[in-house]
């Protein structure tokens, strides 16, 4: 039993039982860390969050303190309780890798703190000494944390990933981690890490792990495979698609923006400027491109969208914002960048579900099994700590000194309007809704689930029609409960979600895609999404040549203030179904084709609360329908709770006209503007 006082001003009593030898034993905690608080907020420099660079350091120490609540002595591995479910380790064979992840990933939060205070002590443990001792254990045969050098027949493994991360920390604080090692320890660590860096990789962001390993040891005078190093650098640059986006082979998500951009920027700073200035220049040019669109992917109050496999890394998505502070760029609104970044930190640190047993759960807020990937262990979540690599940006940088502001949300994005930004090469559409201060996106998904070894690539992480900062995605249910997607009844009598989307065009404010059912390819839809100030107008065409039972879902609401209320309202002959959770209201108004809408309760499908509700509508698609019967039109609307709906808000469509061949649908909106959907 120990009593610790955190230097960030938080009192934490930790009652612990250690179970070092068995991953299946749960560490017991009588008292958990309290919620993070911004101590002595500075509302002059940061009028929206109160957070300055000092508070970022407090947040880093808060997370590090939770991790070190599992360390009773410098010999203890950085090993945490397993989260029940599909995460690893699933047997003793994964324990060494689990320990390696915990060690290397918590270093991302420790390294920036050690950079400024090499004598840092947490819970009575001298942090720098702890990590050095653990590095030595990695290279000591017979130790329970020992990592063998890669054999010539071993392919890319998780060890490569962690050594790549370790190399970033070695670059960050060589004076703490590297220089105090003996010559023999350096030689052994170099030989082990290089064996993985000078080897095969995965055709994605993984190449950066090889790059950082080889770069660090080249910088320290070791002989490395420079031909392979240059090959991986060039191939990483080939992933670039414009507008700040890299493709992560095959998907786009937050990670393919923030990770590629962070790796390229830090590699250039640590190594590239000295050894490969031409490559560094390319990475910097690519980094500069993100400022015109990436900030628009976050809500007005600084919330990130739940999207993609990387969501367990959460706040890691903000690291490009402080890294902008490495250079003076008159085109960057640094006060807005810090407002977004600090807002995202608070989005999670202030959520009572975020920590479980003093460390982040695998999920979005709390533990959420539908979003967990099998390659994650409990320590994996500390990949999010790369956000704190922003502390490497000097305190005098504009990122830290500019006055916090709301950027585009102050004047550019006006209430009563909707704003779209298409990313030309990636076909990602970013939409901002000033009426509720939310950001939304539509992105690529075209991955089969049947027989796939990475099921998450075709899951709800990617296959939603859109993703919104105000409405985290809900998992599909066995009874056809679906949120922001189509599901079809397949031959197994199971509800199969749409996942094989093909982007067509973005024209006149309308985003066009085709989609086909994976197991019944004769079930097809031509989709048209039209963002509106208070929601989305869907005008979709059934182009199937077989019958099918179909369901379409709105976003879902979690029950956060008691039971969710459901009401209906007639508006000019149409029926609006409305749900209200005390924070937001969602309304669905079927205009054509659909039979009815209904509020569907769900349990265990939402990342925010155990109970949730979604509005679904249903239809029976007919094979080769007549033109007028092929069109399905739906309004998916929202407002904040407590605001009354006007008739024009519930029915912003005044008239619909379908052409004789159903190739064109003309929409006259309540504001008298005319939109033509052309498939």
TrEMBL record:
Domain DUF2264 positions: 52-405
UniProt keyword list: Signal
Protein name: DUF2264 domain-containing protein
Pfam family, one: DUF2264
Signal peptide limits: 1-19
Organism (species): Filimonas zeae
């Amino acid at each position: 039993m120990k009593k610790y006082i955190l230097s960030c001003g938080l009192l934490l009593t930790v009652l612990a039982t250690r179970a070092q030898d068995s991953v299946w034993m749960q560490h017991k905690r009588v008292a958990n860390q309290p919620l993070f608080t911004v101590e002595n907020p500075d509302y002059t420099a940061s009028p929206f969050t109160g957070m300055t660079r000092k508070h970022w350091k407090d947040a880093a120490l808060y997370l590090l303190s939770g991790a070190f609540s599992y360390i009773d002595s410098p010999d203890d591995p950085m090993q945490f309780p397993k989260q029940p479910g599909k995460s690893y380790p699933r047997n003793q064979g994964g324990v060494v890798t689990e320990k390696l992840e915990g060690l290397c990933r918590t270093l991302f939060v420790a390294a920036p703190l050690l950079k400024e205070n090499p004598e840092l002590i947490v819970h009575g443990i001298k942090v720098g000494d702890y990590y050095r001792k653990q590095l030595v254990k990695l290279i000591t045969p017979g130790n329970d944390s020992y990592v063998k050098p890669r054999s010539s027949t071993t392919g890319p493994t998780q060890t490569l990933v962690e050594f790549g991360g370790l190399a970033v920390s070695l670059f960050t604080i060589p004076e703490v981690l590297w220089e105090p090692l003996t010559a023999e320890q350096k030689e052994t660590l170099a030989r082990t890490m290089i064996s993985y860096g000078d080897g095969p990789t995965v055709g994605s962001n993984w190449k950066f792990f090889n790059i950082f390993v080889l770069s660090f040891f080249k910088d320290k005078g070791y002989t490395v495979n420079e031909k392979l190093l240059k090959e991986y650098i060039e191939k990483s640059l080939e992933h670039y698609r414009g507008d700040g986006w890299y493709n992560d082979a095959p998907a786009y998500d937050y990670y393919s923006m923030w990770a590629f951009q962070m790796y390229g920027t830090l590699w250039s700073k640590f190594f590239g400027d000295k050894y490969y200035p031409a490559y560094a220049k390319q990475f910097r040019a690519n980094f500069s491109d993100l400022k015109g669109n990436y900030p628009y992917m976050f809500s007005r109050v600084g919330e990130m969208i739940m999207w993609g496999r990387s969501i367990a890394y959460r706040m890691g998505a903000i690291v490009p914002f402080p890294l902008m502070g490495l250079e003076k760029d008159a085109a960057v609104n640094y006060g807005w960048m810090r407002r977004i970044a600090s807002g995202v930190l608070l989005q999670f640190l202030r959520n009572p579900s975020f920590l479980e047993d003093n460390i982040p759960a695998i999920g979005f807020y709390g533990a959420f099994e539908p979003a967990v990937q099998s390659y994650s262990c409990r320590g994996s979540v500390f990949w999010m700590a790369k956000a704190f690599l922003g502390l490497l940006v000097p305190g005098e940088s504009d990122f830290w000194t500019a006055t916090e502001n709301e950027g585009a949300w102050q004047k550019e994005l006006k209430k009563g309007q909707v704003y779209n930004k298409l990313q030309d090469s990636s076909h990602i559409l970013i939409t901002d809704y000033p009426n509720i201060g939310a950001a939304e996106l539509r992105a690529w998904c075209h991955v089969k689930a049947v027989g796939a070894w990475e099921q998450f690539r075709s899951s709800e992480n990617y296959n939603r029609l859109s993703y919104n900062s105000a409405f985290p995605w809900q998992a599909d249910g066995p009874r056809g409960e679906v949120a922001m997607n189509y599901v079809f009844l397949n031959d197994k009598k199971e509800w199969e979600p749409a996942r094989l989307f093909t982007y067509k065009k973005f024209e006149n404010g309308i985003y066009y895609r085709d989609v086909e059912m994976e197991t019944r390819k004769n079930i097809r839809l031509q989709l048209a999404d039209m963002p509106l100030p208070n929601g989305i107008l869907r005008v979709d065409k059934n182009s199937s040549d077989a019958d099918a039972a179909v369901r379409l879902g709105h976003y879902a609401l979690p029950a956060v203030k008691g039971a969710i209320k459901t009401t209906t309202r007639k508006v000019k002959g149409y029926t609006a179904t409305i749900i209200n959770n005390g924070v937001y209201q969602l309304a669905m108004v079927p205009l054509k084709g659909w039979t009815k809408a209904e509020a569907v309760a769900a349990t265990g499908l939402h990342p925010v609360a155990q109970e949730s509700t979604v509005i679904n509508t249903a239809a029976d698609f007919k094979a080769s329908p007549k033109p007028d019967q092929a069109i399905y039109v739906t309004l998916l609307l929202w407002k904040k709770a407590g605001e009354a709906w006007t008739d024009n808000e519930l029915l912003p469509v005044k008239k619909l006209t379908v052409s004789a061949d159903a190739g064109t649908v003309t929409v006259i909106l309540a504001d008298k503007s005319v939109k033509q959907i052309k498939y």
